[in-house]
Amino acid sequence: MTIATQCGHELTARLLDQKSECALDACFDKILEHLTQGNHAYALLFCKQFTPQQIPNTVFTYLEETLTEADIESQVKRLEKLKPSVEVHYYHRKGIFPAKFENNILGFLVIELIEDELISPLESLIAHLLNVFVKQLSTLHYACIDPLSQLLNRQTFEEKVLSVVARDNHAAMRQGYAERRWYLAMLDIDNFKGVNDTFGHVIGDEVILLVAQLLKSSFRAEDYVFRYGGEEFAVLFPSQCPTTAFNGLERIRMLIEAARFPQVGSITVSGGFVALVNIGQTSEAVHQADQALYYSKQHGRNKMTFFDDLNIAPLEPIHSDIELF
């Protein structure tokens, strides 16, 4: 890769050409490697949910020292105290570039220095490219949002699952938790057709929105929550073991059960989940999670089922007069 001009038109165009989050991350990584000539370790931390209250996640890192959550939080607070015009802040032999969106500090780029060497004259170029990265990421992010629930939409689901299975975004997991596995959960509102039939679709939409808000507030910044379709939701999340994953999903199930919904009263959800291990295709993972969900529906609803606990051959659809969904 070569820089066509010192103002970085070609590099800007490269970033704007990326049409997926993973491709954008990889492109920015390559650009930084080129600009630093491979002589400087660097890391990018950013909150891809675009929520200032969340701690930034590691997008990629080549630093020798692990940044703890306390390190990340203190660095963000330090950057928030700087003037808005500051492009880079030098701190402990590191160049820290604030990553901003709508005047909020959502993360930072850190580049380690060699001895007392400064990054200039590339400071402005790197700051500009970081800004382009954030704006392109925001464009991709909001294109992936379901307008009703404000969760990630179905169109971005497969890309996320594939990236998790391929371990492309393993760095996004908190440092020190490499032993965790990723899980896929499918959740469905019980008896939702009855809600629409009794109260109308406007109230039905409100139920979907409120359940989505409960899900979004209950999962962590590193988790991915989707509106998969209609009243069904999907969640990608890392956990240490199936028991921990089950307990987390159970807490959310009980939270929804205890909530009160205007006019409707109480709502419950059923769910099924699967560990993303030896999964060849997205459809396979969804099929297994759906089988566990189907089992929950068949056995009383308002429960969570782990696919491996079924310990049976793939379930065949059972044709009956029972309305499961």
TrEMBL record:
**Protein name as catalogued:** diguanylate cyclase
What EC designation does it have?
2.7.7.65
Give the reactions, separated by semicolons, that this protein catalyses.
2 GTP = 3',3'-c-di-GMP + 2 diphosphate
> According to the lineage, what is the superkingdom?
Bacteria
Q: Name one Pfam family in it.
A: GGDEF
Which organism does this sequence originate in?
Pseudoalteromonas aurantia 208
InterPro entries, sorted: Diguanylate_Cyclase, GGDEF_dom, Nucleotide_cyclase, Rev_trsase/Diguanyl_cyclase
Domain GGDEF intervals:
180-309
Q: Where are the transmembrane segments?
A: none
